[in-house]
Amino acid sequence: MTPFESLWRAFAQLPEVTAIALGGSRAGGVHDATSDYDLYIYCDALPDEAERRAIITERCGYAEIGNAFWELEDDCTLNDGVDIDILYRSLNDFARSISAVVDEGRAATGYTTCMWHNLLRCRVLFDRDGRLEALRRRYAVDYPNELRANIIGKNMRLLAANLPSYDHQIAKAAARGDLVSVNHRTAAYLESYFDVLFALNRITHPCATGGHRAAGQATYSAAG
């Protein structure tokens, strides 16, 4: 048994854990030897830190417990040298976030459909009561027209032709020689640009994983 399999199976024994899924490039089979694992632990209550540490320490040579830069996660290096990000989520909160996007059509400024993509593309490793698979079936639907229109409308107004739009901000920063702001606003521009591109082609946003491949498909579809 690999350190990765041993680790997720140990987490599956905890009573708080309702489901476990593998995301990212390893879920899609497009990884290489250096690709890390993105492991999602869905739980009704957060497992105790001491329990998490005990499971992780036995199977990892290095561990950072309780990082909370984006989501709560433990970031580690398995005993076979492969990095792993272990993210802890409430399944109910996760479901609500997807409903807000798919059912209610709420658009963000970039990355709008990432969580929906994560749900559809993950590999379910453990599902105690079948709730994660039920959620995936619930949202295996066509791309909603309202959501598509909202993403395009919101993000296009940030790309150009409005006072706060990124093209104006980039031009003003360049004129004053502020290269840091140029870089910052260009990154924000691309976030909105790709949100529009994926929405136009009715493709869920792959976040950082496989984004260049999905963007290539979307560009081809738009051109075709």
TrEMBL record:
InterPro entries recorded: DUF4037, NT_sf, Polymerase_NTP_transf_dom
MF terms (GO), sorted A to Z: nucleotidyltransferase activity
Domain DUF4037: 121-206
Record's keyword annotation contains Signal: no
SUPFAM superfamilies, alphabetized: Nucleotidyltransferase
The Polymerase nucleotidyl transferase domain, residue ranges: 7-106
Keywords on record: Transferase
Keyword Transferase: yes
The organism's place on the tree of life at top rank: Bacteria
CDD domains documented for this protein: NT_KNTase_like
Protein name (record): Nucleotidyltransferase
Protein source organism: Bifidobacterium castoris
Lineage of the organism: Bacteria, Bacillati, Actinomycetota, Actinomycetes, Bifidobacteriales
